[in-house]
């Protein structure tokens, strides 16, 4: 067994597979993980805020943070595979286990590698809206993010001396020499395979190192450049592989939940539709004609989805603050927003006071110069600056000022 | 460095503990088993299938390197890696589109055609890079540089 491990380790040895390469690619991957973690936390708390949380209402903030989250996640594919390529011979280290601490270290690496692979794969599949895994995406992606960041911190703690030694230049690792020929199998099929590999010309160090980093670098540039157009308008012409494309959809805007899926095709078109606004002690109702008769405001705000795509659009309707004033309701309180949808996790959403009172928050009635399409929330929808698309409630039924 | 390591270790253990708590409180037990299987599956798929296959291809290509110049082998390897990683990301997308998207604005592009175009462009660029190298660096100069 020991000989087999040595053989595998020796034949998988390459000039690229050293501590310096691991550090160079590891810090890029670590940075990508931290960026994903930070933007992911932001997205999570926007959707599930703790009671004391208030958020910035910069119109394009979420569009940018979530675009970065998805794009950095895609960049993790070449970076993580490159990192695993560099450290692959470590899998065959001998002795396989030196003691309980070594066992823990190797187990934590296994968890780190496995959880990271699962995390980026399910994240990618979620952007394709394909769920072949036997668990809930949102909760598992959330839980694994802590497992991964925790494992990353432990990994850095364990490897810190090596990282420090190799941060700025390559130094020979005394204990990292590949096993000599006498330590590898010589007999049987394994021996024959090893001998065959040994007759293969050895890779030339500078050349393979350059090749490796060029491959990882070009792959990263390619996967980012050819998918990020779904999030960043400047890259739209290059969008070959993004799961969404800007300007595609009713009124030039992509959608997630259709009116048919939400089962609102009748209720949204009903002649007696009214928007009900409720506050302590007061109830007011507005028909669509009455909403259109109130002062109209036009704003440019993006729809930005948790899946990373976003689209700028021009909205026209009643400013939320003006509407609440017309209903004699306060505009400095939390708002509960109800949709005509009868089922679905985002049928009822909450809006913090920072958005309720913002100049840019509208009950939108028009989109890009036309009447709001039913797929975009006719007769009326919410549009607020810097919030995830799932919270821009479509097909409004009522607004309740929280007491 | 010792203090930094202790802090990192503490942060790491706290992260793991938090992950475990979130997992146990928000995910049903049967699903947690599913997560475990997927993590294990990912490790096996990478360590026992993907990585050894890559090693085999690498050895085969280096053996080809006896007849072809090493730099040309490396340039071809770069092209193959770039195409393979892109395929890894796009093939599930093509399959998801075959299964049927929720509406017309999800997966709206012809990803199969685009992937074919990407492979074509990668092959072309790889060929150009090889040709430029072979012309720019004569065989003897390359041999003495190594």
UniProtKB/TrEMBL annotation, chain A:
InterPro entries, A to Z: Di-haem_cyt_TM, OxRdtase_Mopterin-bd_dom, OxRdtase_Mopterin-bd_sf
KW Membrane (keyword) present: yes
Chain ranges of the Oxidoreductase molybdopterin-binding domain: 269-402
GO biological process, alphabetically ordered: respiratory electron transport chain
Keyword Translocase: no
CDD domains: SO_family_Moco
TM ranges: 21-46, 66-88, 109-128, 140-158, 212-235
Cellular component annotations (GO), alphabetically ordered: membrane
Keywords tagged on the record: Membrane, Transmembrane, Transmembrane helix
SUPFAM superfamilies, per the entry: Oxidoreductase molybdopterin-binding domain, Transmembrane di-heme cytochromes
Top-rank taxon: Bacteria
Protein name as catalogued: Molybdopterin-dependent oxidoreductase
TrEMBL record, chain B:
UniProt entry keywords in alphabetical sequence: Membrane, Transmembrane, Transmembrane helix
Protein name stated in the entry: Uncharacterized protein
Domain of life: Bacteria
Transmembrane residue ranges: 35-60, 72-91, 111-134
């Amino acid at each position: 067994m020991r000989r087999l491990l040595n053989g595998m380790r020796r034949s998988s040895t390459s000039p690229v597979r050293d501590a310096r390469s691991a550090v160079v690619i590891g810090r890029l991957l670590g940075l990508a993980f931290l960026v994903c973690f930070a933007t992911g936390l932001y997205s999570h708390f926007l959707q599930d805020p703790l009671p004391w949380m208030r958020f910035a209402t910069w119109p394009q903030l979420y569009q940018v943070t979530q675009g970065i989250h998805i794009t950095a996640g895609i960049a993790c594919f070449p970076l993580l595979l490159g990192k695993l390529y560099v450290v692959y011979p470590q899998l065959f280290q001998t002795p396989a286990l030196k003691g309980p601490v070594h066992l823990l270290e190797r187990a934590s690496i296994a968890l780190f590698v496995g959880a990271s692979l699962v995390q980026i794969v399910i994240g990618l599949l979620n952007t394709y809206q394909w769920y072949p895994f036997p668990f809930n995406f949102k909760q598992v992606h959330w839980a694994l993010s802590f497992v991964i960041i925790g494992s990353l911190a432990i990994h850095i703690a364990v490897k810190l001396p090596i990282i420090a030694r190799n941060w700025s230049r390559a130094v020979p690792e005394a204990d990292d020499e590949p096993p000599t020929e006498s330590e590898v199998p010589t007999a049987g099929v394994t021996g024959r395979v090893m001998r065959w590999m040994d007759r293969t010309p050895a890779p030339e160090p500078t050349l393979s190192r350059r090749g490796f980093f060029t491959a990882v670098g070009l792959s990263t540039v390619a996967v980012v450049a050819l998918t990020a157009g779904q999030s960043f308008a400047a890259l739209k012409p290059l969008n070959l592989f993004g799961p969404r494309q800007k300007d595609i959809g009713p009124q030039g805007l992509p959608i997630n939940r259709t009116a048919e899926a939400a089962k609102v095709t009748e209720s949204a078109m009903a002649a007696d539709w009214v928007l009900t606004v409720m506050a302590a002690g007061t109830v007011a109702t507005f028909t669509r004609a009455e909403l259109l008769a109130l002062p109209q405001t036009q704003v440019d705000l993006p729809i930005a989805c948790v899946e990373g795509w976003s689209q700028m659009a021009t909205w026209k309707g009643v400013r939320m603050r003006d509407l609440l004033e017309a209903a004699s309701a306060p505009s400095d309180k939390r708002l509960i927003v109800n949709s005509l949808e009868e089922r679905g996790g985002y049928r009822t959403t909450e809006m913090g006071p920072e958005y309720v009172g913002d100049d840019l928050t509208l009950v939108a009635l028009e989109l890009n110069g036309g009447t709001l399409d039913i797929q975009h929330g006719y007769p009326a929808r919410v549009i607020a600056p810097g919030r995830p698309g799932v919270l821009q409630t479509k097909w409004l039924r009522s607004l309740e000022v929280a007491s | 460095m010792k203090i930094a390591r202790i802090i990192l270790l503490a942060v790491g253990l706290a992260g793991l503990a938090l992950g475990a708590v979130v997992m146990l409180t928000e995910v049903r037990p049967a699903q947690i088993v599913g997560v475990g299987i997927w993590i294990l599956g990912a490790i096996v798929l990478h360590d026992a299938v993907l990585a050894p296959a890559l090693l085999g291809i690498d050895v085969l290509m280096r053996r080809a390197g006896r007849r072809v110049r090493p730099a040309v082998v490396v340039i071809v390897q770069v092209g193959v890696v770039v195409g393979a990683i892109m395929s890894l990301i796009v093939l599930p997308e093509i399959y998801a589109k075959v299964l049927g998207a929720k509406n017309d604005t999800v997966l709206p592009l012809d990803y199969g055609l685009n992937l074919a175009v990407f492979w074509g462009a990668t092959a072309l660029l790889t060929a150009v890079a090889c040709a430029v190298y072979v012309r720019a660096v004569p065989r003897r100069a390359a041999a003495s540089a190594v």
